[in-house]
Amino acid sequence: MYIIDKNRDYYDHLRKTYGVDKGIVYDRRGSTVLSDITLFIHIAPVYFQKRDSIEHFILEVGLVQYLFRVKIAYELNYPTEVSMPVKGEFQAIKAFNDNKHYFKKEISIVPAYVRRHWSWRKNSKEEYPIPDRYTDIKVDVDKVLGNPILRDTSIPSFISPLSMWVKLTDYISSKRNDRVVEIKNTDVEKAVNHGFDKKTSFRHPVK
Rounded to whole angstroms, how far apart are CA atoms 145 and 159? Predict the structure, then answer.
């Protein structure tokens, strides 16, 4: 798989193992680097005077949708009293394999809203019902975040680099993206895709 992006994610190193196939192109330009905190801010509503909450989100990778639940702890931001997330506990709920892709980008994160009978109770070992199908879940289509960079989040502890690589490769291949693609970039764009900062790396020489 050939990845086009200036950012690097936790599965990118596998191209050294499996090689660069320009017939399978993942154009990840415009990606967003996430941490756990920025992920929480994206999936959670704005709360006031709240100490903790339970949120859910979907991570779509190719043809698979992963449902996550997060218990978020907050601190109050004075004087606004807006609750700001400071840490969270992740739980992988289920992976849906309906062989369908729902969002525009190859990888996307979107907030999910669960049924009322789903819950997270403290000090309880009871297991609660989870949906049988991805279509049983309501998501906020206005808050889809495409091409997230996940290396600085807790997600790599749940989904291995190999699993990410395989699912992406299989999905892109399934779209019949089997031709060698010639990417036409300027010299500056090529350098940016290799990690250079065009604001600081291309200054005019001092005369």
Answer: 18
